[in-house]
From TrEMBL:
Listed GO CC annotations: cytosol
Domain Amine oxidase: start-end pairs: 13-280
Protein name: Pyridine nucleotide-disulfide oxidoreductase domain-containing protein 2
Organism: Solirubrobacter ginsenosidimutans
UniProt function note: Probable oxidoreductase that may play a role as regulator of mitochondrial function.
GO terms assigned for molecular function: oxidoreductase activity
Family annotation (InterPro entries): Amino_oxidase, FAD/NAD-bd_sf
Amino acid sequence: MYDAVIIGAGHNGLVAAAYLAREGRSVLVLERSDHVGGAAVSERPWAGVDARLSRYSYLVSLFPRAIAAELGLAIELRRRSVSSYTPRPDGTGLLVRTTRPPNRHWADFQAMTEHVARVVFPTLTEPLVSRDALRARVGDDAIWDALVERPLGEVLARYFEDDFERGIVATDALIGTFAGLDDESLRQNRCFLYHVIGNGTGDWDVPVGGMGALTGALAGIAYGAGAEIKLGVEVTSIETDGVAAEILYEGGSVQARYVLCNAAPAVLASLLGEPAPDPRPEGAQLKLNMLLKRLPRLRDPSVDPFEAFAGTFHVNEAATQLALAYGQAQSGLVPELAPCEVYCHSLTDPSILGPELREAGAQTLTCFGLHMPARLFEREPSVAKAQAIASTLASLNSVLAEPIEDCLWIAPSGEPCLEARTPVELEAELGLPGGNIFHRDLLWPFAETEAEVGTWGVETPHANVFVCGAGARRGGGVSGIPGHNAAMAVLDG
Ligand SMILES: Cc1cc2nc3c(=O)[nH]c(=O)nc-3n(C[C@H](O)[C@H](O)[C@H](O)COP(=O)(O)OP(=O)(O)OC[C@H]3O[C@@H](n4cnc5c(N)ncnc54)[C@H](O)[C@@H]3O)c2cc1C
Protein backbone atom coordinates (compact mmCIF):
# COMPACT_ATOMS: atom_id res chain seq x y z
CA MET A 1 0.00 0.00 0.00
CA TYR A 2 1.26 3.48 -0.92
CA ASP A 3 1.16 6.29 1.59
CA ALA A 4 -0.38 8.47 -1.15
CA VAL A 5 -1.69 8.01 -4.68
CA ILE A 6 -2.01 11.22 -6.66
CA ILE A 7 -4.50 11.29 -9.54
CA GLY A 8 -3.03 13.53 -12.23
CA ALA A 9 0.48 14.82 -13.00
CA GLY A 10 -0.51 18.43 -13.55
CA HIS A 11 1.94 20.88 -11.96
CA ASN A 12 -0.02 20.75 -8.69
CA GLY A 13 0.06 16.95 -8.56
CA LEU A 14 3.81 17.15 -9.05
CA VAL A 15 4.25 19.71 -6.27
CA ALA A 16 2.24 17.50 -3.89
CA ALA A 17 4.29 14.45 -4.93
CA ALA A 18 7.55 16.32 -4.36
CA TYR A 19 6.59 17.52 -0.87
CA LEU A 20 5.37 14.09 0.24
CA ALA A 21 8.25 12.11 -1.25
CA ARG A 22 10.78 14.47 0.37
CA GLU A 23 9.23 13.58 3.73
CA GLY A 24 9.84 9.90 3.03
CA ARG A 25 6.26 9.00 2.06
CA SER A 26 5.73 6.41 -0.68
CA VAL A 27 3.99 8.21 -3.54
CA LEU A 28 2.52 7.04 -6.84
CA VAL A 29 1.29 9.56 -9.41
CA LEU A 30 -1.14 8.25 -12.05
CA GLU A 31 -1.57 10.42 -15.15
CA ARG A 32 -4.02 9.64 -17.91
CA SER A 33 -2.13 11.36 -20.73
CA ASP A 34 1.29 10.42 -22.09
CA HIS A 35 3.05 13.42 -20.54
CA VAL A 36 3.16 15.43 -17.32
CA GLY A 37 2.00 19.04 -16.88
CA GLY A 38 -1.77 19.13 -17.53
CA ALA A 39 -2.55 22.69 -18.63
CA ALA A 40 1.04 23.84 -17.96
CA VAL A 41 2.98 22.35 -20.87
CA SER A 42 5.13 23.28 -23.87
CA GLU A 43 4.41 21.61 -27.19
CA ARG A 44 5.34 21.88 -30.86
CA PRO A 45 1.87 22.22 -32.41
CA TRP A 46 3.04 22.18 -36.05
CA ALA A 47 4.97 19.24 -37.51
CA GLY A 48 8.40 20.28 -38.77
CA VAL A 49 8.29 23.69 -37.04
CA ASP A 50 10.67 24.10 -34.09
CA ALA A 51 8.51 26.36 -31.93
CA ARG A 52 7.83 25.04 -28.41
CA LEU A 53 4.77 26.98 -27.36
CA SER A 54 3.32 27.20 -23.88
CA ARG A 55 0.20 25.75 -25.41
CA TYR A 56 -2.33 26.66 -22.71
CA SER A 57 -1.12 28.61 -19.67
CA TYR A 58 1.64 31.06 -20.45
CA LEU A 59 2.43 33.53 -17.64
CA VAL A 60 3.28 32.90 -13.99
CA SER A 61 2.36 35.12 -11.07
CA LEU A 62 0.93 32.95 -8.31
CA PHE A 63 3.71 30.39 -7.80
CA PRO A 64 5.11 31.35 -4.36
CA ARG A 65 8.85 31.98 -4.27
CA ALA A 66 8.85 30.14 -0.95
CA ILE A 67 7.61 26.92 -2.59
CA ALA A 68 10.16 27.27 -5.39
CA ALA A 69 12.94 27.75 -2.82
CA GLU A 70 11.80 24.86 -0.61
CA LEU A 71 11.67 22.47 -3.55
CA GLY A 72 14.86 23.80 -5.17
CA LEU A 73 12.98 24.70 -8.34
CA ALA A 74 15.47 26.35 -10.68
CA ILE A 75 13.36 28.18 -13.23
CA GLU A 76 13.79 31.76 -14.33
CA LEU A 77 10.66 33.91 -14.35
CA ARG A 78 11.45 36.90 -16.54
CA ARG A 79 9.77 40.27 -16.07
CA ARG A 80 8.28 41.80 -19.22
CA SER A 81 9.52 45.30 -20.01
CA VAL A 82 6.02 46.50 -20.88
CA SER A 83 2.92 45.78 -18.81
CA SER A 84 0.34 46.45 -21.52
CA TYR A 85 -0.49 48.27 -24.71
CA THR A 86 -4.04 49.18 -25.69
CA PRO A 87 -4.91 50.63 -29.09
CA ARG A 88 -7.85 53.05 -29.24
CA PRO A 89 -10.28 53.46 -32.16
CA ASP A 90 -8.84 56.87 -33.09
CA GLY A 91 -5.49 55.28 -34.01
CA THR A 92 -3.68 56.25 -30.79
CA GLY A 93 -2.85 53.88 -27.97
CA LEU A 94 -1.90 53.56 -24.30
CA LEU A 95 1.45 51.97 -23.43
CA VAL A 96 1.83 51.04 -19.76
CA ARG A 97 5.36 50.27 -18.58
CA THR A 98 5.90 47.59 -15.96
CA THR A 99 7.58 49.98 -13.54
CA ARG A 100 5.28 52.98 -13.89
CA PRO A 101 1.48 53.36 -13.66
CA PRO A 102 0.42 55.85 -16.38
CA ASN A 103 -1.34 58.37 -14.11
CA ARG A 104 -2.19 59.29 -10.54
CA HIS A 105 -5.54 57.51 -10.19
CA TRP A 106 -4.04 54.33 -11.65
CA ALA A 107 -1.17 54.56 -9.16
CA ASP A 108 -3.67 54.99 -6.30
CA PHE A 109 -5.67 51.98 -7.45
CA GLN A 110 -2.49 49.92 -7.75
CA ALA A 111 -1.40 50.96 -4.24
CA MET A 112 -4.71 49.56 -2.97
CA THR A 113 -4.34 46.18 -4.72
CA GLU A 114 -0.68 45.94 -3.70
CA HIS A 115 -1.62 46.45 -0.07
CA VAL A 116 -4.11 43.57 -0.29
CA ALA A 117 -1.57 41.46 -2.17
CA ARG A 118 1.09 41.89 0.54
CA VAL A 119 -1.38 40.83 3.24
CA VAL A 120 -3.33 38.07 1.48
CA PHE A 121 -0.70 36.27 -0.57
CA PRO A 122 1.33 34.84 2.34
CA THR A 123 -1.88 33.39 3.82
CA LEU A 124 -2.49 31.17 0.77
CA THR A 125 0.03 28.60 1.99
CA GLU A 126 -1.18 28.67 5.61
CA PRO A 127 -4.24 27.06 7.18
CA LEU A 128 -7.42 29.02 6.40
CA VAL A 129 -8.45 31.99 8.49
CA SER A 130 -12.00 33.32 8.75
CA ARG A 131 -13.39 36.13 6.62
CA ASP A 132 -13.33 38.48 9.63
CA ALA A 133 -9.76 37.57 10.50
CA LEU A 134 -8.56 38.27 6.97
CA ARG A 135 -10.53 41.50 6.88
CA ALA A 136 -8.83 42.53 10.12
CA ARG A 137 -5.41 41.67 8.68
CA VAL A 138 -6.13 43.83 5.61
CA GLY A 139 -6.96 46.52 8.15
CA ASP A 140 -8.85 48.86 5.85
CA ASP A 141 -12.63 48.41 5.60
CA ALA A 142 -12.99 50.64 2.53
CA ILE A 143 -10.51 48.52 0.55
CA TRP A 144 -12.04 45.27 1.78
CA ASP A 145 -15.56 46.39 0.86
CA ALA A 146 -14.47 47.57 -2.59
CA LEU A 147 -12.72 44.33 -3.49
CA VAL A 148 -14.52 41.64 -1.48
CA GLU A 149 -18.03 42.81 -0.57
CA ARG A 150 -19.24 44.97 -3.49
CA PRO A 151 -19.32 44.18 -7.24
CA LEU A 152 -15.94 45.19 -8.68
CA GLY A 153 -17.57 47.41 -11.30
CA GLU A 154 -18.31 49.96 -8.57
CA VAL A 155 -14.72 50.64 -7.52
CA LEU A 156 -13.52 50.56 -11.13
CA ALA A 157 -16.09 53.21 -12.03
CA ARG A 158 -14.88 55.37 -9.12
CA TYR A 159 -11.20 55.20 -10.08
CA PHE A 160 -11.32 55.00 -13.88
CA GLU A 161 -13.43 57.43 -15.89
CA ASP A 162 -11.80 56.44 -19.16
CA ASP A 163 -13.58 53.50 -20.81
CA PHE A 164 -10.34 51.88 -22.05
CA GLU A 165 -8.43 52.30 -18.80
CA ARG A 166 -11.35 50.79 -16.91
CA GLY A 167 -11.45 47.90 -19.36
CA ILE A 168 -7.72 47.18 -19.12
CA VAL A 169 -7.97 46.79 -15.35
CA ALA A 170 -11.28 44.90 -15.62
CA THR A 171 -9.85 42.12 -17.76
CA ASP A 172 -8.12 40.70 -14.67
CA ALA A 173 -11.62 39.97 -13.38
CA LEU A 174 -12.81 38.23 -16.53
CA ILE A 175 -9.98 35.93 -17.59
CA GLY A 176 -11.60 32.51 -17.91
CA THR A 177 -14.59 33.79 -15.92
CA PHE A 178 -17.98 34.39 -17.52
CA ALA A 179 -19.29 37.35 -15.54
CA GLY A 180 -20.23 41.00 -15.78
CA LEU A 181 -18.39 43.60 -13.72
CA ASP A 182 -21.55 44.39 -11.74
CA ASP A 183 -22.66 40.79 -11.11
CA GLU A 184 -23.93 40.19 -7.58
CA SER A 185 -22.33 36.71 -7.67
CA LEU A 186 -18.94 38.48 -7.23
CA ARG A 187 -17.28 35.80 -9.36
CA GLN A 188 -15.52 38.67 -11.13
CA ASN A 189 -14.15 39.95 -7.79
CA ARG A 190 -12.68 36.57 -6.90
CA CYS A 191 -11.06 36.23 -10.32
CA PHE A 192 -9.68 39.77 -9.97
CA LEU A 193 -8.24 39.08 -6.53
CA TYR A 194 -6.22 36.09 -7.74
CA HIS A 195 -4.92 38.14 -10.65
CA VAL A 196 -3.53 40.97 -8.53
CA ILE A 197 -2.02 39.25 -5.46
CA GLY A 198 0.63 36.93 -6.93
CA ASN A 199 3.82 36.97 -4.82
CA GLY A 200 2.62 40.13 -3.14
CA THR A 201 2.87 42.24 -6.31
CA GLY A 202 0.50 40.78 -8.92
CA ASP A 203 3.28 40.80 -11.57
CA TRP A 204 2.85 38.25 -14.37
CA ASP A 205 6.17 36.89 -15.60
CA VAL A 206 7.34 34.71 -18.47
CA PRO A 207 8.74 31.28 -17.52
CA VAL A 208 11.96 31.04 -19.48
CA GLY A 209 11.89 27.94 -21.67
CA GLY A 210 8.08 27.91 -21.51
CA MET A 211 5.61 26.29 -19.14
CA GLY A 212 7.04 22.87 -20.03
CA ALA A 213 10.33 23.92 -18.46
CA LEU A 214 8.53 24.61 -15.18
CA THR A 215 6.60 21.34 -15.16
CA GLY A 216 9.58 19.34 -16.37
CA ALA A 217 11.63 20.71 -13.49
CA LEU A 218 8.86 19.86 -10.99
CA ALA A 219 8.60 16.31 -12.35
CA GLY A 220 12.38 15.96 -11.96
CA ILE A 221 12.19 17.11 -8.34
CA ALA A 222 9.32 14.73 -7.51
CA TYR A 223 11.07 11.83 -9.22
CA GLY A 224 14.39 12.68 -7.60
CA ALA A 225 12.71 12.64 -4.18
CA GLY A 226 11.47 9.10 -4.84
CA ALA A 227 7.93 9.55 -6.25
CA GLU A 228 6.83 7.09 -8.95
CA ILE A 229 5.06 8.63 -11.94
CA LYS A 230 3.05 6.42 -14.31
CA LEU A 231 1.81 7.92 -17.55
CA GLY A 232 -1.08 6.70 -19.70
CA VAL A 233 -3.07 5.48 -16.69
CA GLU A 234 -6.59 6.89 -16.39
CA VAL A 235 -8.15 6.39 -12.99
CA THR A 236 -11.74 5.19 -13.36
CA SER A 237 -12.97 5.04 -9.76
CA ILE A 238 -12.03 5.40 -6.11
CA GLU A 239 -13.36 3.37 -3.20
CA THR A 240 -12.62 4.61 0.28
CA ASP A 241 -13.71 3.99 3.87
CA GLY A 242 -11.93 7.12 5.09
CA VAL A 243 -8.89 5.20 6.33
CA ALA A 244 -7.62 3.44 3.21
CA ALA A 245 -8.58 3.64 -0.44
CA GLU A 246 -8.54 1.55 -3.56
CA ILE A 247 -7.85 3.41 -6.78
CA LEU A 248 -9.04 1.60 -9.89
CA TYR A 249 -7.88 2.00 -13.48
CA GLU A 250 -8.26 -0.08 -16.61
CA GLY A 251 -6.57 -3.40 -16.02
CA GLY A 252 -5.67 -2.87 -12.37
CA SER A 253 -5.94 -1.16 -9.04
CA VAL A 254 -3.70 0.11 -6.27
CA GLN A 255 -4.21 0.80 -2.58
CA ALA A 256 -3.25 3.88 -0.64
CA ARG A 257 -3.66 5.43 2.78
CA TYR A 258 -4.38 8.82 1.13
CA VAL A 259 -5.73 9.85 -2.28
CA LEU A 260 -4.87 13.30 -3.63
CA CYS A 261 -6.91 14.35 -6.65
CA ASN A 262 -5.24 16.75 -9.09
CA ALA A 263 -8.21 16.41 -11.47
CA ALA A 264 -11.13 18.83 -11.10
CA PRO A 265 -13.68 18.40 -8.28
CA ALA A 266 -16.32 17.40 -10.86
CA VAL A 267 -14.02 14.58 -12.03
CA LEU A 268 -13.38 13.55 -8.41
CA ALA A 269 -17.13 13.39 -7.78
CA SER A 270 -17.59 11.07 -10.72
CA LEU A 271 -14.65 8.86 -9.61
CA LEU A 272 -16.27 8.54 -6.18
CA GLY A 273 -19.68 7.81 -7.76
CA GLU A 274 -21.10 11.02 -6.28
CA PRO A 275 -23.41 13.62 -7.93
CA ALA A 276 -21.79 16.24 -10.16
CA PRO A 277 -21.37 19.71 -8.61
CA ASP A 278 -24.20 22.12 -9.29
CA PRO A 279 -23.91 24.45 -11.17
CA ARG A 280 -21.70 22.71 -13.70
CA PRO A 281 -18.38 24.56 -14.20
CA GLU A 282 -18.10 26.54 -17.40
CA GLY A 283 -15.07 28.14 -19.04
CA ALA A 284 -15.46 31.21 -21.23
CA GLN A 285 -12.43 31.66 -23.46
CA LEU A 286 -11.14 31.01 -26.94
CA LYS A 287 -7.43 30.31 -27.05
CA LEU A 288 -5.45 30.92 -30.25
CA ASN A 289 -1.79 30.07 -30.76
CA MET A 290 0.12 31.45 -33.72
CA LEU A 291 3.60 31.53 -35.15
CA LEU A 292 4.38 34.64 -37.17
CA LYS A 293 6.92 35.42 -39.89
CA ARG A 294 7.08 38.91 -38.41
CA LEU A 295 5.14 41.05 -35.96
CA PRO A 296 2.28 42.88 -37.70
CA ARG A 297 2.37 46.63 -38.32
CA LEU A 298 0.04 48.65 -36.09
CA ARG A 299 -2.53 51.31 -36.93
CA ASP A 300 -0.94 53.44 -34.21
CA PRO A 301 2.27 54.75 -35.84
CA SER A 302 3.63 56.12 -32.56
CA VAL A 303 4.45 52.73 -31.06
CA ASP A 304 6.93 50.10 -32.13
CA PRO A 305 5.31 46.64 -32.44
CA PHE A 306 8.32 45.23 -30.52
CA GLU A 307 7.16 47.32 -27.54
CA ALA A 308 3.41 46.92 -28.06
CA PHE A 309 3.58 43.11 -28.15
CA ALA A 310 6.13 42.85 -25.32
CA GLY A 311 3.37 43.11 -22.71
CA THR A 312 -0.34 42.28 -22.75
CA PHE A 313 -1.83 43.71 -25.93
CA HIS A 314 -5.50 44.49 -25.22
CA VAL A 315 -7.84 44.35 -28.21
CA ASN A 316 -11.32 45.87 -28.01
CA GLU A 317 -11.38 45.47 -24.24
CA ALA A 318 -12.85 48.84 -23.22
CA ALA A 319 -15.35 48.42 -20.37
CA THR A 320 -18.33 49.09 -22.68
CA GLN A 321 -16.99 46.63 -25.26
CA LEU A 322 -16.60 43.98 -22.56
CA ALA A 323 -20.17 44.59 -21.38
CA LEU A 324 -21.52 44.39 -24.94
CA ALA A 325 -19.68 41.12 -25.63
CA TYR A 326 -20.91 39.66 -22.32
CA GLY A 327 -24.50 40.51 -23.23
CA GLN A 328 -24.16 38.96 -26.70
CA ALA A 329 -22.64 35.77 -25.31
CA GLN A 330 -25.36 35.58 -22.66
CA SER A 331 -27.95 35.60 -25.44
CA GLY A 332 -26.18 32.72 -27.15
CA LEU A 333 -24.20 34.69 -29.73
CA VAL A 334 -20.49 34.66 -30.49
CA PRO A 335 -19.45 38.26 -29.63
CA GLU A 336 -19.37 40.39 -32.76
CA LEU A 337 -16.21 42.33 -31.90
CA ALA A 338 -14.54 39.72 -29.72
CA PRO A 339 -12.57 41.25 -26.82
CA CYS A 340 -9.22 39.49 -26.57
CA GLU A 341 -5.65 39.93 -25.39
CA VAL A 342 -2.51 38.94 -27.14
CA TYR A 343 0.92 38.06 -25.78
CA CYS A 344 4.24 37.43 -27.50
CA HIS A 345 6.34 34.98 -25.48
CA SER A 346 9.31 35.00 -27.85
CA LEU A 347 9.99 38.74 -27.40
CA THR A 348 10.80 38.16 -23.72
CA ASP A 349 12.16 34.63 -24.13
CA PRO A 350 13.35 33.66 -27.63
CA SER A 351 14.71 30.34 -26.29
CA ILE A 352 11.44 28.59 -27.23
CA LEU A 353 12.27 29.05 -30.93
CA GLY A 354 14.80 26.94 -32.82
CA PRO A 355 17.82 28.80 -34.32
CA GLU A 356 16.33 28.84 -37.82
CA LEU A 357 13.11 30.51 -36.68
CA ARG A 358 15.02 32.98 -34.53
CA GLU A 359 17.26 33.95 -37.41
CA ALA A 360 14.26 34.40 -39.68
CA GLY A 361 12.69 36.83 -37.19
CA ALA A 362 9.74 34.57 -36.33
CA GLN A 363 7.66 35.38 -33.22
CA THR A 364 5.02 33.45 -31.32
CA LEU A 365 1.66 35.02 -30.57
CA THR A 366 -0.95 33.69 -28.21
CA CYS A 367 -4.41 35.18 -27.99
CA PHE A 368 -6.87 34.75 -25.13
CA GLY A 369 -10.43 35.66 -26.16
CA LEU A 370 -12.91 36.61 -23.41
CA HIS A 371 -16.65 35.94 -23.18
CA MET A 372 -16.62 32.76 -25.28
CA PRO A 373 -18.54 30.45 -22.91
CA ALA A 374 -18.73 26.70 -23.49
CA ARG A 375 -22.49 26.94 -24.11
CA LEU A 376 -21.80 28.67 -27.46
CA PHE A 377 -19.89 25.63 -28.72
CA GLU A 378 -22.13 22.81 -27.56
CA ARG A 379 -24.76 22.63 -30.33
CA GLU A 380 -22.74 23.03 -33.53
CA PRO A 381 -19.15 22.93 -32.31
CA SER A 382 -17.36 23.33 -35.64
CA VAL A 383 -19.65 26.10 -36.97
CA ALA A 384 -19.38 28.04 -33.71
CA LYS A 385 -15.62 27.51 -33.59
CA ALA A 386 -15.16 28.87 -37.12
CA GLN A 387 -17.32 31.86 -36.21
CA ALA A 388 -15.39 32.50 -33.01
CA ILE A 389 -12.02 32.35 -34.79
CA ALA A 390 -13.27 34.68 -37.54
CA SER A 391 -14.66 37.14 -35.02
CA THR A 392 -11.44 37.11 -32.96
CA LEU A 393 -9.16 37.59 -35.96
CA ALA A 394 -11.39 40.42 -37.27
CA SER A 395 -11.23 42.04 -33.84
CA LEU A 396 -7.43 41.79 -33.82
CA ASN A 397 -7.20 43.06 -37.40
CA SER A 398 -9.29 46.11 -36.47
CA VAL A 399 -6.25 47.50 -34.62
CA LEU A 400 -3.55 46.37 -37.08
CA ALA A 401 -2.30 48.05 -40.26
CA GLU A 402 -2.16 44.67 -42.05
CA PRO A 403 -4.15 41.45 -41.61
CA ILE A 404 -2.62 39.05 -39.10
CA GLU A 405 -3.27 36.25 -41.62
CA ASP A 406 -0.56 37.77 -43.86
CA CYS A 407 1.98 37.45 -41.07
CA LEU A 408 1.44 33.76 -40.23
CA TRP A 409 4.35 31.36 -40.65
CA ILE A 410 3.58 28.60 -43.14
CA ALA A 411 4.33 25.06 -41.91
CA PRO A 412 5.98 22.47 -44.23
CA SER A 413 2.47 20.99 -44.68
CA GLY A 414 1.47 24.26 -46.39
CA GLU A 415 -0.87 25.17 -43.51
CA PRO A 416 -0.59 28.54 -41.75
CA CYS A 417 0.60 28.16 -38.14
CA LEU A 418 -2.60 28.95 -36.27
CA GLU A 419 -4.45 26.69 -33.83
CA ALA A 420 -7.54 27.35 -31.71
CA ARG A 421 -9.14 25.73 -28.69
CA THR A 422 -12.72 26.26 -27.54
CA PRO A 423 -13.77 25.44 -23.95
CA VAL A 424 -15.41 22.26 -25.26
CA GLU A 425 -12.12 21.17 -26.82
CA LEU A 426 -10.22 22.00 -23.63
CA GLU A 427 -12.57 19.72 -21.74
CA ALA A 428 -11.89 16.84 -24.14
CA GLU A 429 -8.13 17.46 -24.25
CA LEU A 430 -7.32 18.34 -20.63
CA GLY A 431 -10.33 17.12 -18.65
CA LEU A 432 -11.26 20.68 -17.57
CA PRO A 433 -15.02 20.51 -16.81
CA GLY A 434 -16.85 22.82 -19.22
CA GLY A 435 -13.39 24.01 -20.30
CA ASN A 436 -13.05 25.98 -17.06
CA ILE A 437 -9.35 26.88 -16.87
CA PHE A 438 -9.49 26.98 -13.06
CA HIS A 439 -11.38 23.62 -12.78
CA ARG A 440 -14.34 25.54 -11.24
CA ASP A 441 -15.28 29.13 -10.36
CA LEU A 442 -12.57 30.54 -8.13
CA LEU A 443 -13.34 30.63 -4.39
CA TRP A 444 -12.52 33.27 -1.78
CA PRO A 445 -9.14 32.67 -0.13
CA PHE A 446 -10.67 32.53 3.37
CA ALA A 447 -12.82 30.07 5.31
CA GLU A 448 -16.50 30.51 4.51
CA THR A 449 -17.72 28.35 7.38
CA GLU A 450 -16.60 28.01 10.99
CA ALA A 451 -15.67 24.37 10.33
CA GLU A 452 -13.27 25.38 7.58
CA VAL A 453 -11.15 27.62 9.81
CA GLY A 454 -7.75 26.02 10.40
CA THR A 455 -8.10 23.54 7.53
CA TRP A 456 -6.04 23.61 4.32
CA GLY A 457 -8.99 24.20 1.97
CA VAL A 458 -8.34 20.87 0.23
CA GLU A 459 -10.54 18.60 2.36
CA THR A 460 -13.47 16.48 1.11
CA PRO A 461 -16.15 14.60 3.07
CA HIS A 462 -13.75 11.62 3.01
CA ALA A 463 -11.05 11.94 5.67
CA ASN A 464 -8.34 10.43 3.45
CA VAL A 465 -9.23 12.12 0.12
CA PHE A 466 -7.91 15.62 -0.68
CA VAL A 467 -8.13 17.92 -3.68
CA CYS A 468 -4.61 18.83 -4.82
CA GLY A 469 -5.51 20.78 -7.96
CA ALA A 470 -6.86 24.11 -9.12
CA GLY A 471 -10.33 23.26 -7.72
CA ALA A 472 -9.10 23.58 -4.11
CA ARG A 473 -10.09 26.69 -2.16
CA ARG A 474 -6.85 28.56 -2.89
CA GLY A 475 -6.63 27.09 -6.39
CA GLY A 476 -6.59 28.22 -9.99
CA GLY A 477 -3.65 29.27 -12.12
CA VAL A 478 -0.13 27.99 -12.17
CA SER A 479 0.63 28.28 -8.46
CA GLY A 480 1.53 24.94 -6.91
CA ILE A 481 -0.46 26.18 -3.89
CA PRO A 482 -3.14 23.45 -3.86
CA GLY A 483 -0.39 20.84 -4.30
CA HIS A 484 1.52 22.27 -1.35
CA ASN A 485 -1.61 22.58 0.80
CA ALA A 486 -2.81 19.03 0.09
CA ALA A 487 0.63 17.68 0.99
CA MET A 488 0.51 19.67 4.25
CA ALA A 489 -2.94 18.20 5.00
CA VAL A 490 -1.50 14.68 4.59
CA LEU A 491 1.59 15.46 6.67
CA ASP A 492 -0.62 16.94 9.43
CA GLY A 493 -2.84 13.83 9.43
C1 LIG B 1 -5.89 28.08 -22.25
C2 LIG B 1 -5.44 28.27 -20.84
C3 LIG B 1 -4.67 29.40 -20.51
C4 LIG B 1 -4.27 29.60 -19.19
N1 LIG B 1 -3.42 30.65 -18.90
C5 LIG B 1 -2.88 30.74 -17.67
C6 LIG B 1 -1.79 31.61 -17.41
O1 LIG B 1 -1.25 32.26 -18.30
N2 LIG B 1 -1.32 31.66 -16.13
C7 LIG B 1 -1.84 30.91 -15.10
O2 LIG B 1 -1.40 31.02 -13.95
N3 LIG B 1 -2.85 30.03 -15.34
C8 LIG B 1 -3.35 29.91 -16.60
N4 LIG B 1 -4.30 28.95 -16.86
C9 LIG B 1 -4.83 28.14 -15.75
C10 LIG B 1 -3.82 27.08 -15.30
O3 LIG B 1 -3.19 26.52 -16.41
C11 LIG B 1 -4.51 25.96 -14.53
O4 LIG B 1 -5.36 26.51 -13.53
C12 LIG B 1 -3.47 25.07 -13.87
O5 LIG B 1 -2.54 24.62 -14.85
C13 LIG B 1 -4.13 23.90 -13.20
O6 LIG B 1 -3.11 23.03 -12.75
P1 LIG B 1 -3.46 21.70 -11.97
O7 LIG B 1 -2.19 20.99 -11.77
O8 LIG B 1 -4.27 22.01 -10.78
O9 LIG B 1 -4.43 20.90 -12.96
P2 LIG B 1 -4.26 20.43 -14.48
O10 LIG B 1 -3.17 21.18 -15.14
O11 LIG B 1 -5.63 20.50 -15.07
O12 LIG B 1 -3.81 18.92 -14.35
C14 LIG B 1 -4.69 17.89 -13.99
C15 LIG B 1 -4.09 16.59 -14.48
O13 LIG B 1 -4.93 15.51 -14.09
C16 LIG B 1 -4.98 14.59 -15.15
N5 LIG B 1 -6.19 13.76 -14.99
C17 LIG B 1 -7.49 14.19 -15.05
N6 LIG B 1 -8.33 13.14 -14.85
C18 LIG B 1 -7.54 12.06 -14.64
C19 LIG B 1 -7.83 10.68 -14.35
N7 LIG B 1 -9.09 10.23 -14.26
N8 LIG B 1 -6.78 9.83 -14.20
C20 LIG B 1 -5.49 10.26 -14.30
N9 LIG B 1 -5.18 11.55 -14.57
C21 LIG B 1 -6.20 12.43 -14.72
C22 LIG B 1 -5.01 15.47 -16.38
O14 LIG B 1 -4.65 14.77 -17.56
C23 LIG B 1 -4.00 16.54 -15.99
O15 LIG B 1 -2.68 16.18 -16.37
C24 LIG B 1 -4.67 28.70 -18.19
C25 LIG B 1 -5.40 27.56 -18.52
C26 LIG B 1 -5.78 27.34 -19.83
C27 LIG B 1 -6.54 26.10 -20.17
